[in-house]
Design goal:
This protein is an alpha+beta fold. It has 3 helices and 6 strands. Helix 1 (about 65-80) packs across helix 2 (about 85-95). The longest helix is centred in the C-terminal third of the chain and has 18 residues, at about 65-80. It is elongated, with a radius of gyration of 15 Å. This is FLYWCH-type domain-containing protein. Pfam families: FLYWCH (PF04500). One of its GO terms (molecular function) is zinc ion binding.
Length: about 110
């Protein structure tokens, strides 16, 4: 589980999910593209294990989704700790943070 913008993100099968609701020990996650009315993909998770996947995604998975989220989170944390602006971190440190494939997608 990753954290971005202060909210948990779950990466599964190249798709990024955000929490929709929680009931007891089960958490229902919806595709992060749901908020735009674009995707109906959902998963049910109990104790960090995917127990059910429902709904069809309306888009292809992104193999680099986890790396991109981790990079954004790392850059935001570095900006907070070093009092640097994110665009300065991107300009100077991006090659140390993520792969060339993901650099083009940021």
């Amino acid at each position: 589980m990753k954290i971005t913008k202060g909210k948990p993100i779950f990466i599964h099968g190249g798709y990024a999910y955000i929490v929709d609701k929680t009931s007891g020990d089960k958490t229902i996650w919806c595709c992060d593209r749901k908020r735009h009315g674009q995707c109906r993909g959902r998963i049910h998770i109990i104790n960090d294990n995917v127990v059910l996947s429902i709904g069809e995604h309306s888009h292809e998975p992104k193999a680099e989704a986890a790396e991109m989220i981790a990079a954004r989170t790392q850059m935001a944390n570095e900006a907070k700790m070093a009092s640097k602006k994110i665009h300065n971190i991107v300009a100077t440190d991006i090659t140390d943070i993520i792969s060339v494939n993901c650099q083009a997608k940021l």
